Amino acid sequence: MLESTLGSRREAPFTLRLMGGWRLSTPTRPRLRVTSRKARGLLAYLAHPPEARHDRQVLAALLWEDSDPWHARLSLRRALSDLRSHVADALLCEGDRVWLSGSAFEIDTQNFMRATSDSSAVGSGQAALLYGGDFLAGLTVASRAFTHWQQLTRQRLHSRMLVCRACAHDWMPVKHQEDATRAR
Question: In terms of Cα–Cα distance, which of 106, 76, 80 is closest to 92?
Answer without folding.
Answer: 80
